[in-house]
Amino acid sequence: MIRRCLFPAAGYGTRFLPATKAMPKEMLPILTKPLIQYGVEEAIEAGCDVMAVVTGRGKRAIEDHFDISYELEHQIKGTSKEHYLTEIRSVIDKCTFSYTRQIEMKGLGHAILSGELLIGNEPFCVILADDLCDHRDGAGVLSQMTELYNKYKCCIVAVEEIEIENSNKYGIIAGDLIEDGVLRVHNMVEKPDPKDAPTNLAIIGRYILTPEIFDVIRETKPGKGGEIQITDALLAMAKEGKVIAYKFKGKRFDCGSVEGFVEATNYFFDKEKDNLEA
User: For the chain, where are the alpha helices, taking DSSP H only?
Assistant: First the structure.
């Protein structure tokens, strides 16, 4: 069983300025929960009980959120508002949180490498909190992927079909179909122009990685934008047949964009409105 999930959470969230000037983008709420809590709950559902968070300057709110607030709990204890903390208490009780800082913003690959000491020598999941995923009828995306890992025992990236004109926003994969919805990856390109994209299959913010990835990242030179891209590191492993792509079941929202954030808010309001109190 994969027990550890890594959350790269050091980015600035510039598309949400000025809201993210003093608040981490991962703490932006969809209804009453911050984005990162949705991700942690997805990881718990998939069997993870150790959450490793790579943060940066100005991200202390994430640590405070996954901690006990004694003053707040004292103030609302025994009142009609006490139940509002039930979900987050459950999360805190079910898993352990550890944190480290990414001192420089040098790409997702570098962020994942920064979490090596929190992960150790074992396979692990990665969730990018601003990719919010939901599957109304069945297991969450990460649960689907961990089940697949038990079969293939290699790196897995979640992918979805996109409009080809948006290829320059994603890592794009190409591969050979080995079963329904699963491809053995043979090519990966970081944010290619539409004319250079090998397919319209885009990587989203869900990964399962083997510990070998850390040594590969160390050998990976800066790529697109001068950053160390996880796509480039995974390409090196794909050339050895060690990466598969999975067309997940469910819906994904790009909450790193204002449009996707609003779409997610409306979607989850429609889903949860019967449970929300006035």
Answer: 35-45, 60-65, 70-76, 86-94, 108-114, 116-119, 141-152, 212-218, 230-238, 258-272
